[in-house]
Amino acid sequence: MCYGNDRPPTRDDLFEAPPPQENEDRVMAVENLRDRLAETEARLERARAREAELSCCLDEMKKFVRVMEILESYLRRQYAEQQDRLARLYSSSSSSSSLLVGVSA
């Protein structure tokens, strides 16, 4: 290794203390990063709470939709049964009225 006219670097050269202003800048940068990290963690916690709240609302809505589907199928079945009853009633009344018309003639 050739260092020219300079002496080889010593341990002190490699780990020389930064000037005081640079040290203050580093401390302020670290504090700034810690503050930003704390804000990010707080936002993340709020987002998780909101996600939990929305998940709960979604589950409630899913239950509501299931109940509505059950009610819809029940009402469709009731409607179809009523239509069948009316069709039988009309068909039986028209056949009995034709019998009455045939008897009176």
Automatic annotation (TrEMBL):
Source organism, top-level taxon: Eukaryota
Annotated region described as Disordered, given as residue ranges: 1-26
Name used for this protein in its record: Protein SKIP34
